[in-house]
Amino acid sequence: MPIKIPNQLPASEILQQENIFVMNEARAYAQDIRPLHIVILNLMPIKETTETQLLRLLGNSPLQVEITFLHPSSHQSKNTSTKHLSAFYKTFEEIKGDNFDGMIITGAPIEKLPFKEVNYWDELTEMMDWSKTHVTSTLHICWGAQAAMFHHYGIDKTPLERKQFGVFKHRIRVQNNPLLRGFDDIFYVPHSRHTTTSTAELERHDQLHILADSEKAGVYLISNGDGSQVFVTGHGEYDADTLKEEYLRDVEKGLNTKLPDDYFPSDDLDNVPPLLWRAHSHLLFSNWLNYYVYQETPYELG
């Protein structure tokens, strides 16, 4: 089934070339189907790239999904044009009276900054509180997951001695959880972050459950009891070359960033990195949409 996105969104052409079933607004209105309404709060600087990555995963589902993109009005984007934001994005003020089946809050490259020093922190926390009453299930990614765990549960992030950077093996900790249905015992996920979340602190919260983790990268997938809040510390949405691009940007800035772990074959920058995480990323998003959104959301929103 298709993913419904705004007409003329740049990601549309890329997704259609990959045989992702994309439906424009005009065609979707002709179908007598109640789509799932998903709002994506995109906090990443290069929003067009993140749009394509997330829509690719949301489009691999038998469900029709309608997307609303959101950006914080209290932050001035430096890497995405005002024209693009005006054409494809809404602000919280425009949608806060609405209800949604699901929400995604992305990461943001501001991990070293204390949460309360983020210039849109007040607006973000208002949206996170709003999500508890206006959204069936919210999926938080990387910094978005850390911010939500800090705001909702008081669990702060912990600085790392060096950047957690690379592709890491992960294991399932809780068997038969719907989010991990169909997963292999060992699966791979990219990580790119300067901070982590303490396993011990998470285990002290009865409301939170660590579902999957990595011996090297730490906790990966966390959920509250009813699946209305899901936290993902890695970047399964990344393309095969995303870590390479991040590494080259760090080098260009003069940062002492090591090569991503277990990413380049033979640790040779000239070798093409294999894409090892796409299948499980599709599974995670499909499971979330099916079990914690579609099967839990009311037919009549609100």
From TrEMBL:
Binding site for substrate: 163, 192, 249
Gene3D superfamilies: 3.40.50.880
Any single Pfam family the record assigns to this protein: HTS
KW Phosphoprotein (keyword) present: no
Active site: 142 (acyl-thioester intermediate), 235 (proton acceptor), 237
UniProt xrefs under InterPro entries: Class_I_gatase-like, HST_MetA, MetA_family
Record EC number: 2.3.1.31
Sequence intervals crossing the membrane: none
Keyword vocabulary terms for this entry: Acyltransferase, Amino-acid biosynthesis, Cytoplasm, Methionine biosynthesis, Transferase
Gene Ontology molecular function terms on file: homoserine O-succinyltransferase activity
Annotated SUPFAM superfamilies: Class I glutamine amidotransferase-like
UniProt family annotation: Belongs to the MetA family.
Function statement: Transfers an acetyl group from acetyl-CoA to L-homoserine, forming acetyl-L-homoserine.
Name the UniProt record assigns to this protein: Homoserine O-acetyltransferase
Encoding gene per record: metAA
